[in-house]
Amino acid sequence: MNQHGCPEFRIGDRVRVVSSDRHRSPHAGTIREVVWHHKDARYNYYIEERGHKVSTRYLAVDLEPDGS
């Protein structure tokens, strides 16, 4: 474990974006990058969907595991 604790999602995890006021576009894919955001003191997640990088930065609350 690092000094920031464990991220809720790891690279390769299958996730889907939770629809909200912040994120209206439906996306589902795999975590491609996990980055610690020093100013916000939390992890940011980037996903890949069907082989394409989704440029949006997500927080753990924006994502849920996709068991399909």
Structural features:
68 residues; mainly beta; 40% strand; 0% helix; 5-stranded antiparallel β-sheet
Order of helices and strands: EEEEE
Globally, the shape reads globular
Question: How many H/I helices?
Answer: 0
For the secondary structure, the number of strands is 5
Please list the strands of the largest sheet in the order they lie side by side: 4-3-2-1-5
Percentage beta strand: 35-45%
- N-end to C-end Cα span: 29 Å
Contiguous uncertain segments of 5+ residues:
none
**Helix amount:** under 10%
Average of per-residue pLDDT values: 90
- SS-based structural class? mainly beta
The biggest beta sheet is recorded as: 5 strands, antiparallel
Please state the CA-atom Rg, rounded to the nearest Å. 12 Å
What can you see in these coordinates?
By secondary structure, the chain is mostly beta strands. The chain has strands spanning 14-17, 28-37, 42-49, 52-53, 63-65. The protein has a five-stranded antiparallel sheet with strand order 4-3-2-1-5, with no helix packed on it. A hairpin with a 2-residue loop joins strand 3 and strand 4. The mean pLDDT is 90.
Furnish the topology, listing elements before pairings.
Layout: E1 14-17, E2 28-37, E3 42-49, E4 52-53, E5 63-65
Antiparallel strand pairs: 1-2, 1-5, 2-3, 3-4
